[in-house]
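Reopening this one. Same input as before:
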Amino acid sequence: MDKGAGTRDTTPHGTVFASLRKAERVWAVASIHGEAHRLRRLHSALREKLKPGDRVVYSGNAMGHGPEIGAVIDEIMAFRRYVLAQRNALVFDVAILRGAQEEMWQKTLQLQFAVNPSEVLDWMLDQGVGATLEAYGSDADEARTAARTGTMAITRWTSNLRSAFQASGHQAWLSALKHAALTRKTHCCSSAGDCGPTCRWMPRTTCSGGAAAGLTGFRTVPDLQQGGTGLRSATSRGSDRRPYDNARRRLRVRRTVAGRLHNR
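Same output, byte for byte:
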């Protein structure tokens, strides 16, 4: 799919994909998992590296596991405002994608529709959703109690949870998340890397799955800041398609899991 600079995705999948303008470099930030302090250090280092023509993609999993999920979302939006405040920047220049944690959170808010809510809930708690529950005023014990009690109890619980989420101002953020970001010639797909927040830059003719480490087809250089920010840079080794294929495979797996949760 070849898109002109500065255009929106007007295909039937326009609500699923974000379209980036022609980019010199694309900075892809992988899984953050509620580690706001590390994300702030990453952003601080990235401010010194950004150049005109750069684009930024958050590849999902801002939620889950970590203790500062609300602060992470606020920090992402604050950095987005910083990028868009730069000269000649447009709203298309920052893409925020949904990862497995965001998919599971959306399913958590719809748990009353699951055929086996206790089973679905236990699986999601094993994947780190408990930290997101705590960020919005609930916890795993309250969730399990509601799931055991029945549909009406689950509905009351998810209603309270949704109200707390909306009161935080983060509902609009969740609703606007995309499944993938498209440059003029390639995809930059979301990933479920579990090594904390990382950042890589790629020429626009390459593709990244946003993985936290070991991206095939790229040469990784050491962290850009002491203290283990997780901020990394990478340079292309050529037109190796494996990163593209791996990213598409991860996207298919995530959609399959989300579909199974929806059908339960």
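So the earlier flakiness isn't reproducible anymore. For the record, The mean pLDDT is 74.
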